[in-house]
Amino acid sequence: MLKWTDLMKKFTSPIERMDKYLTRKGLITAERTAKVRLEAKNAVRDALKNATGELLPEIDNLFSDVYEKMPLHLLEQREELRAHIKKYPDSYELEKFENGKSFLK
Q1: What residue segments make up the domains of the chain, in order of their start?
Q2: Phi and psi dihedrals of 44, rounded to 5?
């Protein structure tokens, strides 16, 4: 019977297994794999750059986006958050949120 550690050595990541399989079948080369990985890494990096420029969702969405009618405990938590942010406004970058400043009203 195989030990767990030996078994884990046998089963690598699915991406590595697919890469070995395709290479063994002659369907892809190491150079092509490197190129695809670089393109994917750059695509993810570009997507992150674009996403960081977007405004974050409204703070109220934390509370209102789940229930049709907000439960009492969430209403209370929203008011507690509002009071906390009013007390420590310099600790939060509300301009990064859609309608961030209006949350305090």
Answers
A1: 4-52, 61-104
A2: -65, -45
